[in-house]
Each structure stands twice: as C-alpha cells, then as structure tokens.
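Query structure, 71 tokens:
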C-alpha cells in the first residue's frame, strides 16, 4: 500500500487524486462544523449543516472557492 502525499502546495491534509489527476472532491455530507474547525473560519450557520447544502444554498462551486472567499 503506497502512502498518499501532499502533492498540491497549500493543501491541508492528505487528499487523493482521481484517475484524471484532479484532486477528489470533499464529501458533501461533511458537516459545516468540521469545515469551520479545519479551516478556522466562521460560516455563521448551524454546525450540523451539510457542506453540499451550504454550497448549493450559497451558489458556491467548491470547498476551495468557499475557503478562499472567506479569508
């Protein structure tokens, strides 16, 4: 079993890539509280809201766009 490496600069944690080389997407059922803790942001919603619901409601394409716009 090979070890996953951080292969994108500024990438937090270890994320694998899809077959086409793209970083895989963060799971939609991740709770906002987890995102707030990991990225030190306050999204001003309930911590048990799902990431996919938050992104859809706020018309944000990805977790990356969310985090970059919050900082």
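Result returned for the query:
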């Amino acid at each position: 079993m090979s070890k996953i490496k951080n292969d994108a600069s500024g990438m937090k944690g270890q994320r694998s890539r899809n077959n086409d080389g793209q970083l895989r997407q963060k799971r939609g059922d991740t709770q906002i509280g987890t995102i707030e803790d990991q990225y030190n942001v306050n999204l001003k919603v309930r911590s048990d809201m799902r990431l996919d619901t938050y992104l859809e409601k706020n018309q944000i394409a990805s977790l990356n766009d969310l985090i970059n716009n919050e900082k």
